[in-house]
Amino acid sequence: MVATTDTAAPTTASTGDLRAMRPGARHRRGVARWFVLAGAVVVALAMLAPFVIMVLNAVKSPAEYSQDGPLSLPSHLYLDGVLNFWNRVDFPVKLWNSFFISAIVAVAGTLISLLNAYAIGIGRIKGRLWIVMIFLLANMLPQEALIYPLFDMARQVGLSNSQWSVIIIFTVIQSAFGTYLLASVLGTFPPALLEAAALDGAGRWRILWNVVFPIVRPTLGVLMIFFFIWTWNEFFIPLVMLTTNDTQTIPIALASLQGDRMMDAPTTNAGALISLLPALIFFLLFQRTLTRGVTAGAVK
Prior knowledge:
Layout: H1 2-58, H2 62-68, H3 80-88, H4 91-122, H5 128-140, H6 143-156, H7 163-186, H8 191-199, H9 204-233, H10 236-241, H11 250-255, H12 265-285, H13 287-299
Helix pairs in contact: 1-12, 3-12, 4-7, 4-9, 5-7, 7-9, 9-13
């Protein structure tokens, strides 16, 4: 009896010590969370600072920009820079060109990525590891090394100065990344689902659209958003492939504002602000799709 009492006493004391330490541990965790929150706020402010400066200079007159500098507050709203950019580059045409190219590349690149990854990840074709490595290497090739053969091939098939040449090029480039990503995801697909669908008499196409597609749809939504934004921001290949004003995109229109000896800073900032808004609106509209896709991938 004595031994039992002696053994139980330290255990009770230890439990009491742990309970006494819990408030201190909670306090330390609370302090750490405040430090993390403060760091996140500092990083957010550092990221927003360039956008705030861009907005300030977009509504500032050239004389005020030259006299007071880029960090000063405007004394009045100067909207001539916005109007100058809108009329000078024919912004509605550039906006439509960017949206047309980016939307088709996003849809076509995602679809091709799904078909390729389905064949590699679930079809288990021979040499799948080497094929995935080839797609990985394709993503690492610089655009400068590809631009001359791409331009020459587009000229030979009659697609020089055509938006379809840019669409085909970026569809292939984006689908290479999408195939590499989705092949890794579908390589770990539950085989029980595929076997159950096969026992029910489903063919490969039916398995793809009725079994695989609903499960990877959040990931496909994330890919489509990334493909759209990446294509929207592309500059080098559209600059080389699109040579006339009626086929060019918004990034090329921004580059046309910079001359050899002078630059209208308020007009350039206004153009950058207007050009940023469509992509920002697109991201905000599909923010939930992006969040669901990332969360679904984390849960799986």
